[in-house]
Amino acid sequence: MNAVFALSNVVIKELYRRKDFYVLFILTVLITLVMASASLFNDDKIVRYLKEICLLLIWISALAMALGTASRQIPAERENRTIFPLLAKPVTRWHVVLGKFLGCWLACGLALVVFYVFLGLVSASREHTWPVLNYFQAFWLQWIFLAVVIAIVLWGSIIFAAPSSNATICLVFVLGILIVGRYLNQIALQQSEPMRSIIYGIYFIIPHLEFFDVRDLVVHDRGLVGWGACVLVTLYGAAYTLFFLFATWLSFRRKALN
Amino acid sequence: MKLPAPSLILLLLLTICFSLATYLQPQTMKWGERAQADSMMKALLGDGRRIFANHFFVKADIYFHSGYYPSIFDQGHREESHSRHMVEGHDDHDEEEHEKAMDIGQPKDWIDRFGRQFYSSSHSHLDKPGQAREILPWLKLSAELDPQRVDTYTVAAYWLRSKLGKPAEAEDFLREGLRANPNSYEILYELGLLYYENHHDLVRSVNLWELALRRWNDQDKAGKKPLEISYNEITTRLAQVEEEQGNLRQALYYRELEKKASPIPDAVQKQIDELKQRLASKTVSQSLK
Amino acid sequence: MNGILEIKDLRVEYPSRGIGEPVKLALKGLNLSVREGEVFGFLGPNGAGKTTTMNVLLGFVNATSGAAYLFGVDVKEPIARQRIGYLPELTYYYKFLTAEELLRFYARIFGIPRGETERRIDNLLKLVELEHARKRPIKTYSKGMQQRVGLAQALINNPDLLILDEPTSGLDPIGRMKVREIIQRLKNEGKTIFFSSHELGEVETVCDRVGILYQGELKVEGRVSDLIQKYQTNLEQIFLQIIGYAQPVNS
Ligand SMILES: Nc1ncnc2c1ncn2[C@@H]1O[C@H](COP(=O)(O)OP(=O)(O)OP(=O)(O)O)[C@@H](O)[C@H]1O
Ligand SMILES: [Mg+2]
């Protein structure tokens, strides 16, 4: 386990030494503040649109960070040849996969905390309430979502040659699920046979990432998700994360390195 | 501090750009609509802004339902005129129809059922006091993008004046809409309502409604197919006010007009009969004197 | 089998890069054995298969046939690498870390305790003369400095067997001399060193035994003194003869 933690530590260091996070955070803050300063019928209690914009920016930033860091990790190790001194130590490739995953996930988690504190401040400045539990749920589920995404991207980084094409493919995949994943069953119903079964199959196989998106509930004060459902969906995310990590390892295990 | 040469060149180029810009700016004003666009959005999006405007209008509707909204994949989904239920939603007889249009159906499988815990999946409206303010930013944005869309102004004004206690802001917004759409009977009607309900200024509201009626007729004559329901609303209001004022003859006149466009002509006929009776008894009592 | 490093009938084929292109046979049945406590110089022209051999030893490349053992353990097991130090060729270490952070990272992989780690880092940075730059990010290092960081990381776990791929490449004459000194010192401490090099003079001075690899085959192997006796000339001439560049002196 030493190796895993050591590796994740390096990933986290890399993320905060590169300036991506700061840029994304400052952009989010600026855009939100500009939106907040718009005068709307002399009403300073309007808050939901701000929460929505802020959350949208948080989702975009988090996704950009997850895709950016995770798609780079293993290709950079191979390109700079640091994978050689690393694997010459008593480190297995499973350790490498796990360490990289953990590093990306923790780093994104840290960044998410900062983003959600900002969201809390923005909404409290208008509503004067602190729905901490709601924010915690939103944060937690988004973090699990990022775990699945990072695992997918890591797998992609072994399969596809260039980090940029991998990031693009993964982005399309993730956005596709977020946007139509929920409705694939209805789309299937509108098709005729072989297509219907194929789309149904896809519907049941893909990780339903839209589960983790509770922005709607936060923006519209719809109350908390049941904790039982939270536990279940966490397990669901963990299962898919493990699946993709395992797939990453399988692809990476036999790969000749040079 | 001594500036090194490259930064001097950079500074020089910047100055050239700036002076060219100040020279060119007035010239470009002559190039037509795009250059003159007063708002940045307009310049950026061109005519595509209508699509965005519609998007934000729908967004307001989504907010009105606290995030609950059938997607284009749901069977209940139908392109309907959203503006009406957003203002009248819960006291209307087409509530049932609305429920049907907004239905996302029963969950079809376990993924569907489980997933519904993570988004707004029950039908509700913003009816707590003051909550309606949340839809306003999207309406404002929609109006920014497409000033020709009149229901943006009427919906926003409805909430501002009737639920949020901001008649002044409502009037400003309606007048802004009127400037962009001088012939809109809908805005005139809404403005009349504002004077009637918020300022209790009968004279002005009647004037506005009469103007609205004239605009409606103009459009009808021009073959622009104005909305029947608006005609109905305007004439009903006019008839009501005249009746309240005791101008029964005028009221009768508007009721007759109302009947032409009413979905329930029988009910209107009843009112007409009633009015005729009152008018008759009035003339009788007058002639008796 | 008394070797600390054993290679048996090792064949390595690289898959062909495209249709119609032949597979590349990098090693053709290599046999090699390095005994405990000796310094073994692995020589050969560019493309002879030296790096390939080391890649097999470290498990980066899978043998097509044959086997290799470190400390009697098959190289396919990660545990075989617990007691070795490896210096790869052409490596660009994590650019955003400083030298001491990099060494700390590698020390952590071996589970070396904190205090011990700091002590070793001090010693190693002194050894490779990078103390002055220890707090600078590696991206600001020159090529030679990077090579020295590489040497330091190979020594972090105080290994019993060192596998060094061209340890002196990119170093200035003083740096090269330093590396020779380090190798000598490690040898005196009883470590086994297996290294490849193109600097025949340096090989002659530090090595107990050498092997000359040519086109994937080990052409010559033996004690430096024996070889010089046998061929009646210096190592450089022997090397050139074997790869067919110079005529044998005694023929
Ligand atoms: N990934 C690869 N795919 C195909 N062929 C390869 C690959 N890596 C190396 N080779 C070939 O294998 C042979 C041996 O290469 P290797 O890198 O082991 O040589 P080397 O002895 O280390 O040379 P140098 O002294 O230049 O470092 C070369 O002919 C090389 O072209
Ligand atoms: Mg080599």
The structure class of chain C reads: alpha/beta
- Hetero ligands: adenosine-5'-triphosphate, magnesium ion
Main sheet summary of chain A: none
**Inertia-based shape of chain A:** globular
Lateral arrangement of strands in the main beta sheet of chain C: 6-7-8-3-9-10
State the helical fraction of chain A: over 70%
Total number of strands of chain C: 10
Give me the Rg of chain A, rounded. Answer: 20 Å
Q: What is the percentage of strand-forming residues of chain A?
A: under 5%
Average pLDDT number of chain A: 88
What percent strand of chain C? 25-35%
DSSP helical segment count of chain C: 8
| Assembly type | heterotrimer
The number of distinct helices of chain A, counting runs of at least 4 residues, comes to 11
- Label the overall shape of chain C: globular
Elements of chain A, N to C (H/E): HHHHHHHHHHH
β-strand number of chain A = 0
Give a structural overview.
With 258 residues, chain A is mainly α. Chain A has one domain. Chain A contains eleven helices and no strands. The longest helix of chain A is centred in the middle third of the chain and has 35 residues. The model of chain A has no long low-confidence stretch (mean pLDDT 88). Chain B is mostly helical and 289 residues long. Among the domains of chain B are: 84 residues, no CATH class; 99 residues, Serine Threonine Protein Phosphatase 5, Tetratricopeptide repeat (Alpha Horseshoe), CATH 1.25.40.10. Helices cover 68% and strands 0% of the residues of chain B. In chain B, α11 runs antiparallel to α12 and α12 runs antiparallel to α13. The radius of gyration of chain B is 26 Å and the shape is extended. Chain C is an alpha/beta fold. A six-stranded mixed beta sheet of chain C has the order 6-7-8-3-9-10, with helices on both faces. Chain C has a four-stranded antiparallel beta sheet with strand order 2-1-4-5, with helices on one face. In chain C, α2 crosses α3. The mean pLDDT of chain C is 87. Magnesium ion binds next to α1 of chain C.
Please summarize what this structure is.
Chain A is mainly alpha-helical and 258 residues long.
Please specify the SSE layout and strand pairing:
The complex is a heterotrimer of chains A (258), B (289) and C (251).
Chain A: H1 2-17, H2 20-37, H3 48-79, H4 83-87, H5 93-127, H6 132-159, H7 163-180, H8 184-189, H9 193-205, H10 215-219, H11 227-253
Helix pairs in contact in A: 1-5, 2-3, 2-5, 3-5, 3-6, 3-7, 5-6, 5-11, 6-7, 6-11
Chain B: H1 5-28, H2 33-36, H3 40-45, H4 49-64, H5 82-88, H6 95-101, H7 110-115, H8 136-145, H9 150-162, H10 167-180, H11 185-198, H12 202-221, H13 228-245, H14 248-261, H15 265-288
Helix pairs in contact in B: 4-8, 5-9, 8-9, 9-10, 9-11, 10-11, 11-12, 12-13, 13-14, 14-15
Chain C: E1 3-14, E2 24-35, E3 39-43, H1 50-57, E4 65-70, E5 73-74, E6 84-87, H2 99-109, H3 114-127, H4 143-154, E7 161-165, H5 173-188, E8 192-196, H6 200-206, E9 209-214, E10 217-223, H7 224-231, H8 235-242
The structure holds adenosine-5'-triphosphate and magnesium ion.
Magnesium ion binds at residues 50-51, 89, 165 of chain C.
